[in-house]
Design goal:
With about 400 residues, this protein is mainly beta. The chain has one helix spanning about 1-15, and strands at about 45, 55-65, 100-105, 110-115, 130-135, 145, 155-160, 175-185, 190-200, 210-215, 220-240, 255-260, 270-280, 285-295, 305-310, 310-320, 330-335, 340, 345-355, 355-360, 365-370, 375-385, 385-390, 390-395, 400-409. It has two domains: about 25-50 and about 55-70 and about 85-90 and about 100-280, Sandwich (Jelly Rolls), CATH 2.60.120.200; about 285-409, Jelly Rolls (Sandwich), CATH 2.60.120.260. Strand 10 (about 210-215) and strand 11 form a beta hairpin.
Length: about 400
Amino acid sequence: MRGWKYGVLLCSLLLNLVALPAVAQDGGVVSPAADDPAIYLPIITGPESQEGPIATEEIMREGMINVDQEPDFGAPPKPEGPADALPEGPLPPPDPDFKDAQAEVAAIDGWTTILNDGFESVPWPFAGWTAYDTNGALNGNYYWDDDDFRPYRGGWSAWPANNALDPAFSNYAPMQRTWMIYGPFSLADAAKATLTFQYYNQSELNYDWLGWFASPNGSAFYGNWVSGDSGGWRPGVIDFQNVPGYGSMLGDASVWIGFYFYSDGSKQLKGPFIDDVFVQRFACPGQSTAFWYNSLSRNSFTQRAVTCENSQFSRNWGTGSQPWTSADNWSLEMTGKPWFATSKTYTFQTNNDDGVRVYVDGGLIIDSWVDQSAAVTHTGTVYLAAGYHTVRVEYYEHTGNAQLTVKWF
């Protein structure tokens, strides 16, 4: 997009003497606190002029969409009137007091940045991204590309029709069905993970929609939709531990993110811009991946979660229902590969109600797979050389109290 665009803009400057606005950028770096990774999110601050509440008319909803699916938003009938496809026009002159937004990924032990894209790279899309129109040339072939018209930070952002149109002179197109997707990437070792980004949206309320999603397979995407006027740049986020309509994708070795734009046949506006896309994961020492089953048979898990346990796992669930299971007749299987600092004989100990089994490097060292009326302590020993070793714990709750402690020393 960049080569031909510069030619168009140069011609426009010479023929029409239109002064294109510039985007100023300066300011220091805001550093996140490094003492609490459990609550870490990337620190992203907006322009100073947008620190107060944003007055806007925007609606949001959750939803799931397949990549080849035609979404149905159930929009109310449109009022009669001519279609409005006029461009927004040139931006006003830049504010001399404007200070650009800044973002910095915190250098916190355990956090890893999988993706950091401000759409400044040449060319875009780079490896990992795909951008396409799901209905091809049926209503015109439009898809996401980087553009310098409205950046949040730096000089570029993504716009959903920039392969064919220029937001400096056009609004988005009618009947768009446009994806940009990144992946796959792994959250197999993630105890926490987030997608964060900034979006600026002006779309016809109830009829034209921007969505951001996460997917466990690259086909079915789960997340949020917005429609209307964002009133400026706003942050968007997906917590991979609680993806809307799906649940946790932590522990999954293949995950995708996607941004989708949908428009109907009339009243095109300036549309969505996306910038500063971050995907980050937090991996902790001794973490384990747990699979929860709403049955004793462990045939099909209902939820996957990642826990940070170094040398002890301890939970007392009581008699109530669990987040992903009923109160009784459920089970879990938890596997991790913790570090053992010293070569020696280790004692593994459980305190459990009801049944538990503990395996170390595939060998069964504690076997208490029976109902118990109260928590009972069991032990087993094994010699381990210094290094990483695989520990797997199986547990079930039949009736009554549910309690499990597993530790080693």
